[in-house]
Amino acid sequence: METIGGPGKQFWVNGRNYGLEGLSDNKLKEAHEWAGEWRTEIMPPIPSCEDHFLHVLAVSDKNDTPPPITKSVEEGVLKGTVVCGHAVLFNCSEEPITSISYNLPDFRLFTHIIIGVKPSTRFAMYESSRIIATAVSTEGGSVRFSVPTDAKGPFSISEN
């Protein structure tokens, strides 16, 4: 992880500070009040052809409560997180998911979101052998299930 920015590097990309060329003086002044300054770049410790990153951002005032508790999930081809009552899982394989089983940390969950499923397909979600939810995946290949809060898993989904 590297922090980049500060005077002369507000818009730093590949060894050059691009700035806000082409803006009028008033627009430039206004833009510099909120644009540029600092950013954090996340890079893998060992670069490879494919790297997976998941960032959970929690916005608050500095005097607010602490950020939400998150828990990383790695279940076979699924990688993701559990945060604020939601499980967000990404398919890290080449093929869209048509069925899969997985376990989650013991959190009270309201929603399971799985990205990388077969598009425009009706799915059923099971807890053990009981159907607890059904949903249709989007054209982009994501599906969202609202689940009973007492559901503990193991979970599975399959085309229905």
Describe this structure in words.
By secondary structure, this protein is mainly β. The protein folds into two domains: 2-41, no CATH class; 70-159, Immunoglobulin-like (Sandwich), CATH 2.60.40.2750. Helices cover 5% and strands 39% of the residues. The chain contains one helix and 13 strands. It has one helix spanning 25-32; strands at 2-5, 12-13, 16-17, 38-41, 70-75, 78-83, 86-91, 99-102, 111-115, 122-127, 130-136, 142-146, 155-159. Strands 5-6-7-9-12 form a five-stranded mixed sheet, with no helix packed on it. The protein has a four-stranded antiparallel sheet with strand order 8-13-10-11, with no helix packed on it. The protein has a two-stranded antiparallel ribbon with strand order 1-4. A hairpin with a 2-residue loop joins β5 (70-75) and β6 (78-83). The termini are far apart. The relative contact order is 0.13. The mean pLDDT is 86.
